[in-house]
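Progress report, Aim 2. The chain analyzed during this reporting quarter is listed below.
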Amino acid sequence: MRKVSLAEFGGPDVLRLVDAEEPHAGPGQVRVAVRAAGVNPVDWRIREGQALGAHPVELPAGVGLDAAGVVDEVGDGVEGVQAGDHVFGEGADTYAEFAVLSAWARMPEWLTFEEAAGYPSVVETALRVLREVGVRPGETLLVSGASGGVGSAVLQIARDRGIRVIGTAGAANQDYLRSLGALATTYGQGWTERVRSLGHVDAALDLAGSGVIRELTELTGDPGRVLSIADLGAPELGVRFSGVAGSMPDALAEAVDLISRGRLRIPVEKSYPLEEAAAAHIDSRAGHTRGRRVLVV
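Predicted structure tokens for the chain:
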């Protein structure tokens, strides 16, 4: 099978499309013929060799955590799924023609494989950061870097829970944020004053790692109500960094519920063939994404 692999840490050019042995489902796992794989910031962070304790890597290594595809192997002890089922979920080395998933759910019938591949890690992260920052119904949440996959999910899930949301993003994505129910403003000079003009902020999330931890703390008045998933230096400023995933099965179940109720939709901004994984990483790292980027297998 074809698989994206890296033999050393570095820039996008270390990614190689290679021939590899097919993986097989072990106990409690399923194997899928991958139709699409989600491209997440954690993928290029791992590729660069960033110290992410939740994702230890031994080289050579595959790439990718999220996938949507067709089940073709079911491991021992697995019930409720069979060959031919369309599922989406999380596993390992998903930038490949076949991948083993450790957590999965049946795809809602109206989702394409490309759309479904963009949900697993994004929704888990969104649910986790909303829980960890402790924002409650009736409060106002500020989301810095709100137009990407996690931001898109956070805005919609927060609104479903009765939380008022303010999102920052580039000028081109202001209408997009408003379409998700957020009060929108741009980043750049004067952005904190623009946020204040929209109202009091109770809690804040840094999703882009753009060096705004001090400003977010000033806006909330409490570093304990600020959380980052993108700035590894946040703890030095008294702000929690969240990098360890919670329950993926629970997140997938909630994703299916939200999608089925019409309360969550994350658009695919761009799809890339497997051989263009490097280009997908370059674009993902550059930011300014509206929704998700995925690889099509």
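Residues 120-133 form the longest helix (14 residues). Residues 255 and 261 are 10 Å apart (CA to CA). These observations will guide the mutagenesis work planned for the next reporting period.
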